[in-house]
Design a protein that fits this description.
about 325 residues; alpha+beta; 6-stranded antiparallel beta sheet; 9 helices
């Protein structure tokens, strides 16, 4: 018996030592060679679901694209590459391809891109994959592993979200996943009603009951369901306008009078172009494209037939 213990002791020590070794999340000499993932699945949300569940907790390591460690864009590169969908390796390039969509159009599998650099607020530096109800999965640079986060409970990510892209072919994306969604647990958080300020364009919404991941349940965070447009807006008044036209100098006072007489509010954006002052005449703002579209019909009929919708960020 003693001999058996002695023989296995070195093996036990080796295992314990290996487990206790810390992962170097930012190696001094990163491996920048790109390892193309082996195609294992056909493109579908069901197969994405399998990988998402399997890879939660995988270590974050700069410049890695799996299968056992990832940086943020390496994680999304691996997910799509494993289904035979080729996307660029780095986040800022991934954000340039695929179908661009709005926040309120997000579906399971869409990629969401963030600008996390304080000096460059438009430069894409982080990416995650959207799951639904505000949840997304990503290789976190703070937790140093693949985790779940939520746009509703994370002001940090909510504020820095910039671009959303879709890559899955529409013919392979069912409206929902048959299996349980990966962020669901047995614990249900009571629903919370978000009561936005009453306006003519925003209706009060009541949150359905939402199930949260273990890490959120442990911290007793409550998911507040708000309209997805509210996450996208950088201005409480809205970002959509009806553009009446561009003018050398300022538009005529009669046109401005007509706009106000018809019950609209307007905004002038002035800037120099080739040494001359130019102004854009905008009607609005509106919180959603749908509201702007309704206004556009009236503007074309009553003020300017060539008016169009503009989104200002």
């Amino acid at each position: 018996m003693k001999k058996t213990i002695i023989l296995f002791l070195p093996l036990i020590i080796f295992i314990l030592t290996s487990c206790s070794q810390k992962v170097n999340h930012y190696p001094k000499h990163p491996d920048y060679s790109i390892k193309k993932p082996k195609v294992k699945y056909t493109p579908s949300r069901k197969n994405l679901d399998k990988m998402v569940k399997k890879l939660q907790g995988t270590p974050y390591v700069w410049a890695e694209e799996g299968p056992n460690k990832f940086d943020c864009s390496g994680f999304t590169y691996y997910l799509y590459g494993s289904m035979g969908i080729e996307i660029p390796r780095v986040a800022r390039e991934q954000a340039k391809v695929g179908k661009r969509i709005g926040i309120n159009e997000l579906e399971y599998g869409d990629l969401i891109f963030f600008a996390t650099n304080k000096r460059h607020r438009r430069r894409i530096t982080h990416v995650g994959m959207y799951l639904g109800d505000g949840w997304f999965t990503h290789a976190s640079t703070t937790k140093h592993e693949v985790i779940y986060s939520n746009l509703y409970t994370s002001p940090y990510y909510k504020k820095r979200l910039r671009i959303c892209r879709r890559y899955l072919p529409s013919t392979t994306t069912p409206t929902h996943i048959a299996s349980a969604t990966p962020w669901e647990t047995a614990k249900t958080v009571p629903a919370v009603s978000l009561q936005p300020q009453p306006t003519a364009s925003v209706a009060t919404t009541t949150a359905p009951q939402t199930k949260v991941p273990k890490e959120t349940a442990a911290s007793k965070a409550i998911v507040i369901k708000s309209p997805m447009q509210e996450i996208e807006q950088k201005s409480p008044q809205g970002n959509f306008y009806v553009q009446v036209g561009s003018f050398a100098g300022k538009p005529k006072k009669q046109l401005l009078y007509t706009i106000t007489r018809k019950g609209f509010t307007y905004k002038l954006i002035e800037f120099p172009k080739e040494g001359r002052p130019v102004s854009k005449l905008l009607i609005g703002p509106y919180l959603s494209r749908a509201e702007a579209t309704q206004a556009l019909l009236q503007v074309r009929a009553q003020i300017q037939p060539d008016a169009f919708i503009a989104e200002i960020r």
